[in-house]
Design goal:
single chain, 434 residues, alpha+beta, OB fold (Dihydrolipoamide Acetyltransferase, E2P), 5-stranded antiparallel sheet, 21 strands, 21% helix, disordered C terminus
Length: 434
């Protein structure tokens, strides 16, 4: 727990925490990090200068219009259950549009406030903006500053050109890498009434950020709540603040003691009848009744959660031109119901193929289970919960179609995991040629 500040600081942080559905201790941590990043002030300086700390706290808590970091957040509780294979650069369109203008007419792009010319002078990076304005930045020469974009022989900064925003006419980050993660739960005040899967877009530290939350572990996540009156098709889509990764809390204190066992994925994830498929023999019928035509040529199946025994666990990946990592894994699950319904050992219906994308297999612990001592590999016949997109694949030279799941998340139930030895994060480079 973070040590309390003085009365005036605590008053401001308490108010801020209530508005953001956080506990005061989380607000103290966020305040210290804000001062370090924005005011370049250490925690010791804050604690040794009460008057300054009070002013800094007021700077931290006050809100200005249209400032993303000041938007109120809400606490979502439950557990992460999946991750998308692709990271997305949300600044790409703005950056490419600005660069297109700059390549055609740099002077116009500068005068319109789209970009600034970045150059080195007297040991510091400077910016040339509209109307000949010259600005010295806080970035020393010797390395590329955070705002720099290179295009041909041009060195530029993309500027915030919306006058309603706080940083109007100031550099903005030219790259904003994010990844979509899937979360089973609900808002803290709704978790006992309804559970469902949400998609949370979480900012990354860069394109190569390998961060992934722990699937199945009870968690509290601060998100920007859905906008009231928005398009119902996107009501399950949530955005997270920039510091989301640092503020996720793995804890089960959002339910009473007697209900904590119900947070185990083998219980919690099976409560949603729209997602959970109890009998693997029903997958074919579910695909036929719930498939959608989204204009991609082939119909798209629904998201499902299934439980099964891992019947084939091949950790040698296949090359894939459709996966950003360049590889994917193929495993199979089965169940008593499947093997009873399809008794022929050669029947393709006896198992369900599961395709595991490269990021999930390498960084999402898709082939490991959590123990008090760390991650360990599980073996075949271990019981797993799989969250993913249901599809169909052709077998017997196209004469028959059988169900397939493109996994977004795999959770091995620890009590039913058969140990296969020490775990450890995969390195995708080990699967690539020279």
């Amino acid at each position: 727990m973070t040590e309390r500040f003085g009365e005036e600081v605590e008053e401001r942080l308490t108010w801020w925490s209530e508005n953001h559905n956080m506990i005061v201790d989380e607000a103290r941590t966020a305040f210290i990090e804000y001062c370090a990043d924005t005011l370049t002030t250490t925690e010791d300086e804050l604690r040794n200068d009460e008057a300054f700390a009070s002013e800094a706290a007021e700077t931290f808590v006050v809100e200005r219009r249209m400032v993303g970091s000041s938007m109120p957040t809400a606490m979502w509780v439950g557990s992460f259950c999946g991750v998308d294979k692709k990271a997305t650069d949300k600044a790409e369109d703005r950056r490419m549009n600005a660069l297109q203008v700059a390549r055609t007419d740099l002077d116009k792009a500068i005068q319109d406030g789209l970009v600034a010319r970045a150059f080195e002078s007297d040991g510091w990076w400077h910016l040339e903006k509209a109307n000949g304005e010259m600005t010295k930045t806080d970035s020393p020469t010797g390395e590329d500053p955070w705002f720099l974009v290179r295009s041909g022989n041009m060195t530029l900064a993309i500027l915030q050109n919306n006058p309603d925003w706080q940083r109007h006419n100031e550099p903005i980050r030219p790259y904003r890498w994010t990844r979509k993660f899937h979360f089973f739960g609900n808002a803290a005040d709704e978790i006992l009434n309804e559970t469902k899967v949400w998609t949370i877009t979480i900012p990354l530290d860069g394109q190569d950020d390998k961060w992934c939350p722990q699937f199945g572990e009870p968690a509290k996540v601060n998100v920007l709540p859905p906008r009231e009156g928005g398009d119902a098709r996107w009501a399950h889509m949530l955005n997270a603040p920039n510091n989301c990764k640092k503020t996720i809390i793995y804890a089960d204190d959002f339910v009473e003691e007697g209900m904590k066992s119900s947070l185990r994925p083998e219980t919690l994830w099976t409560l949603n009848d729209e997602l959970y498929v109890d009998n693997l023999t029903d997958l074919d019928e579910i695909f036929q009744t719930k498939q959608e035509d989204v204009g991609l040529g082939n119909p798209v199946g629904p998201l499902v959660i299934v439980k099964g025994k891992m019947s084939s666990l091949n950790l040698t990946p296949y090359e894939s031109e459709y996966d950003p990592s360049g590889i994917q894994f193929v495993t199979r699950v089965t169940s008593f119901d499947l093997q009873r319904a399809f008794s022929d050992p050669m029947s393709p219906r006896r198992e369900v193929q599961v395709r595991v994308h490269g990021f999930l297999g390498a960084h999402g612990h898709g082939f490991e289970y959590a123990t008090d001592e760390g991650w360990r590999r599980y073996a075949e016949k271990s019981t797993v919960l799989i969250f993913g997109r249901l599809g169909m694949r052709n077998v017997k030279d196209g004469e028959e179609s059988v169900p397939r799941i493109n996994a977004l998340g795999i959770y091995a139930i620890p009590r039913l995991a058969i140990d296969a030895g020490e775990g450890g994060e995969f390195d995708l480079d080990q699967f690539r040629g020279d």
